[in-house]
Design goal:
The structure is a homodimer. Chain A is α/β, with parallel strands linked by helices. Chain A is globular, with a radius of gyration of 19 Å. The two termini of chain A are 32 Å apart.
Chain lengths: 206, 206
């Protein structure tokens, strides 16, 4: 039985990173897929925890070798998802959590039609801009660039499976968890249980 | 925007009635669709609360007049869902909760492809039989007849959207609620929010 692949996506500044951190802390059945990137670590980020960091040349080699299930260039940097970890975990029946840029989500859905693709967004555009400023890691030009990218990305929202508004962090995390749990209750993930029950009931058939 | 139609179905004795009662008590946005039946009230059941009771002749008149979105004969009695209430509530954006026999669920899904059809089951067949006995309202023959019907119905489980095991009542009720809430987060139910956000972001486009 395949595990559930839950994909957390959405605008830069939506709070994806914090949400993912809370989810894996609270719900230990999520196996977090770490992305590979060619961008430099931000202050406080750690290799193998936030990302696997590499340079452009090695990233392009990974693409050529088919080691990524998706990759994407965002704001001048590569981001990609290593294939082996995701496939191994899902095939062994474990749940996987994946944080990904908007462009990559579409590819994941095509490769894993059974995955649950969730779009995270602040309640308003003003709130999104405010959060980017609060982060304090980017200059004005980069913030405006990110907002412009968000404007473009917003055309994709309706293609997601679910939209979760990140207004209250606790509620947002619980909402995502409930979406994953609901997916675990789908019949094609419960074939063993169904067959068992049908066999038990067979003796009552008249 | 259409509301969510959540359909609670499953074996006789699975605890559907208790679950529905708990759901509408706790979550007041569920509008409960009351079924019509030609069977006699069980002790403690009330007209317009548990069912609308009628006789076979009037039930057949309602069928002929197209007043039911589905009906079904189960164990010698008719059960059906009045059309107007469900359609009015959904069209006004309200959520509807509907308890239904297994045969009827398929019809509801065909008429309302967007509905969420949930199969409720005890964890085992033994547990199902025990619950039917505990109810104390049926004789041995009826219990065995109900178990035989369950054996037959079990072939349908895989066609449901979700399966919820009613082991712990509290957990079962919460699981169902989370399935409804997830459905409320689907993009086609949030078109107003999406359009609003896209409009706010448009000014940042470069």
């Amino acid at each position: 039985m395949q595990g559930v692949l839950t994909v957390i996506s959405g605008f830069s500044g939506a709070g994806k990173g914090t949400i993912v951190k809370k989810l894996v802390e609270k719900y230990t059945d999520y196996n977090l897929s770490i992305s590979m990137t060619s961008r430099k670590p931000r202050e406080g980020e750690r290799e193998g925890v936030d990302y696997f960091y590499t340079d452009r040349e090695n990233f392009e080699k990974a693409i050529a070798d088919g080691m990524l299930i998706e990759y994407n260039e965002y704001n001048g940097n590569y981001y990609g998802t290593p294939r082996k970890y995701v496939e191994d975990k899902l095939n062994s029946g474990s749940n996987v959590l994946l944080e990904i840029e908007v462009n990559g989500a579409k590819n994941i859905k095509r490769l894993f039609p059974d995955s649950v693709i969730i779009f995270i967004t602040p309640p308003t555009a003003d709130e999104l801009e405010m959060r980017l400023r609060k982060r304090g890691t980017e200059n004005e030009e980069t913030i405006m660039k990110r907002m412009a990218i968000s404007a473009k990305e917003s055309a994709e929202i309706a293609n997601y499976d679910y939209i979760v508004v990140n207004d209250d962090l606790y509620k947002c995390v619980e909402d995502i968890r409930h979406i994953t749990e609901s997916a675990m209750d789908q019949p094609h993930r419960m074939t063993e249980f169904i067959t068992g029950l049908q066999n038990q009931l067979a003796k009552y058939a008249q």
